[in-house]
Amino acid sequence: MAKRKAKEKPTDKAPVKMREMTPAEQARYEAYKVRKAATPEPLKYEEGETRDGVRQLVNRQDYPVGFEVSAMMAATGTVDLGAGTGLINQAGNAVPTYSDPVNHGNDIIARMTDIAPSDGLEGMLAAQMVTCHNAAMECMRRAHVGGQTPEGRKLNLTFCGPFSAHLHGPD
Predict the structure, then answer these.
(1) Cys-Cys with 71: which of 2, 12, 43, 44 at CB 3.0–4.6 Å?
(2) Is 53 domain-assigned?
(3) Which residues lie in Basic and acidic residues bias regions (predicted)?
(4) What are phi and psi of 51, to 5 degrees?
């Protein structure tokens, strides 16, 4: 087989010049840095045993003393590790995962940490917000799959939506 010659890339392009931040952008960036410094790093989980066919995530064991409680409180609003872990497992299992379940769980924890619940009730609401968001995005993804029929698009945009009880009929 004959080898193909690689195309030469033009070298006469000027390098990209970064522009200065506007004062408003600089203020937002400074506020971001303050918030980032004040927010503990989110917990990281690894996959544990499966119970009743449902995967369980467990805390990694390499945290420094005290980190786990402060990070759990930042994510779930509770200082009880058992309650917090249960809430995170509920959120992780509420939406199907088509990729790595550990990364899926860690994404949920990071999003809940960003919401910054201040107590257990807000933690439950944060978990619901994250799982509802994930479910809505999955329905949107399915509705816009290439080659989707108009009927398939409509079903995914209405049947999956939060106000789709009228499509289910009485239980």
Answers:
(1) 43
(2) yes
(3) 8-24
(4) -120, 125
Phi, psi dihedral angles at 7 (to 5 degrees) = -70, 135
> Which residue's structure tokens are 């439950």?
124
- Closest-CA residue to 43 (of 61, 68, 64): 68
| 81 and 68 Cβ atoms separated by less than 8 Å | yes
What tokens does 102 get? 């550990």
- How many domains is the chain partitioned into structurally? 1
Full DSSP string of 15-66: PPPPPPPPHHHHHHHHHHHHHHHHSPPPP-EEEEEEETTEEEEEE-S-PPTT
Domain that holds residue 135: 40-162
**Residue 17, in any domain of the structure:** no
**Tokens representing 59?**
């805390």
Q: Is residue 10 part of a domain?
A: no
Any domain includes 167: no
- The alpha helices in 39-164, defined as continuous H runs, are 67-76, 81-94, 101-115, 120-143, 150-158
pLDDT tens by residue, 2-27: 566 666 666 677 778 888 989 999 99
Q: pTM score, two decimals?
A: 0.61
